[in-house]
Amino acid sequence: MDLSNYLLMKPELSLIVVFLILILYDLFASDNAKKYYFPVACLLFLAHTVFCFTVLKETGEKFAGMYIADMARGTVKCILNVGVFLIFLQANSWLSKPESIHKRGEYFMLTILTLLGMYLMISSGHFLLFFIGLETASLPIAALVAFDKYTHHSAEAGAKYIFNAVFSSAVMLFGISFLYGACGSLYFSDIVTTLTFGPLTIMAMIFFLSGLFFKISLVPFHMWAPDVYEGAPTNVTLYLSTISKGASVFALMAILYHVFPILSEVWYVILWIIILLTITVGNLFALRQKNMKRFLAFSSISQAGYIMLSVYTGTALGMSASIYYILVYVFSNMAAFGVISAIEDKTGKVNMDDYNGLYHTNPKLSLAMMIAMFSLGGIPFTAGFFSKMFVFIAAMENGSVASIVIVILAFLNTIISLYYYLLVVKAMFINKNNSPIETLKTDSYLKTSLVFSMIGIGAVGLVSCIYEFISSVSFGM
């Protein structure tokens, strides 16, 4: 091994450089210079995001196959970067409060550390590197969840998250130890060639998947999510529901494809059951929620089921559909949480009833939330409509009865989800309110994040619509 091995890890090295600059700035800058910490941090991360797009096409394996870089992994990292940048923009109002302003440096550094761990998870070709990346991502997230530690719910949410994270990691590590005992190696490439179909390897896979299902909050491993999402700062909730979930789903998909193909008959059945439970339970519980953060928590559980539907296929089309779905989900969730954050920071209101009549006092925020709800619900011709359509097409690619049945059931669940997403729209545009939320003035950073999210939803939906039109015309010819 020599230093040339690290040259392929350009996204990770770039992120470490950003981290080091920010920590030195926070430690040694004068009080006057620290006034510019937030814009400097955002600009540095934006530069890192642009740099990652420039090295997107670099591929290869280093450290004897422990680290893997390819186009799919690079694309997911770029999507996560865009999402984190928008999250940073939305954090300004929260971090400008007296109780948080002195902790801006910690917030940026913890978030960057979690992102570094997710990079390692995505590019891992070895279970040791995967586990290191997972823990590097999980531990700082626990600190972020409890960031407002003097708020009772935040401290409680942090405790719940760390206990669940420790338990899920222990279960996963137990499964990895079984794999090592069965195959004598932790390299993905070695395991796939030596793995045999047997009780020990099936148990190892089930333990590993159970641990990772906790991270993605799939039913029945989801019970921690609503309480943690509600108690964490809204900006951290957004990170958990989008960035963390997107990275974990892609890592799971890569491992299923490249490590456990011989056990596909088993994990097809497991995923079929888990996906159906996740979509259904997430939708049914979302119907009962009045707190907007718990509402979107159960919504994100259901959305995770749809993402997993593309993983279930085990095909290249499924991988493409899942990456597309993650991209659309990031933009849609950013817009929804951006509106919630703007209202909560100014008024402290987070209940759905508080949104009654919002359009009359805050038409722009209402329109942004409406577009986000339409996209999350999959209403034609939003980006969310095409993401669900592509997932359904990928799931039905093999034409099996099980695939057709689960797509039909998922489609029926989509109708249920449309109802509760439209409840938010009804509250803002139709319901009467004698004392609606006053007209709010949002800061320029949050406005920029919402504009980018709206452009993302619109642009992705428009491109998808044009693509489908061209495909249909070409097919007709």
What does the model show?
The chain is mainly α and 477 residues long. The protein has one domain (3-476). It contains 19 helices and 2 strands. It has helices spanning 10-28, 37-54, 71-90, 92-95, 104-123, 127-145, 152-183, 188-194, 199-216, 224-231, 234-258, 264-286, 292-313, 316-347, 358-361, 363-377, 383-395, 401-429, 444-476, and strands spanning 60-62, 67-69. The protein has a two-stranded antiparallel ribbon with strand order 1-2. Strand 1 (60-62) and strand 2 form a beta hairpin. Helix 3 packs antiparallel against helix 19 (444-476), helix 6 (127-145) runs antiparallel to helix 7 (152-183) and helix 11 runs antiparallel to helix 14. The chain is globular and about 65 Å long. Residues 472-477 have low confidence and may be disordered.
